[in-house]
Amino acid sequence: MFKILKAAQIERKNHEAGFTLIELLIVIVVLGILMSMAVPALSGVKDKADTAVAKADLHNIMQSLEMYYLDAGAYPAQAVEADFTTVAESLDELNIKNTAAAYNYVTDADGEEYLISYQAADDEYYYISTAASSLVGPESTAPSL
Fold it and tell me: Which of 136, 128, 121, 132 is nearest to 106 (CA)?
């Protein structure tokens, strides 16, 4: 009797050895279909996140420039539009995530007006100026003072 039970157990193990090739192929095809739907949906997420960080940085730069203006009576002078690196060194309370070189900065001759701009990956421009006093963008052309 024990021999019959052992033979039945051995026979059952032989039939349950694993997945068939067809089952594995079906799983692979389903995973491929799911991936083909997920990848395009997630492709623009990094660009949107970079733009959100830049917008927050523009607000932080504006606040730092306003504090500088209250102390010095004028904004840091930079008559030619260039990156923000040299001006960022003179601001004490500046807290930005991107490098200062990612932003362009220019002032008028008197140091009474400024323009800070950021060019996003898809040629959209975001900027803050004394004239607008809030974030503007996206714009398709580069802003000027």
Answer: 128
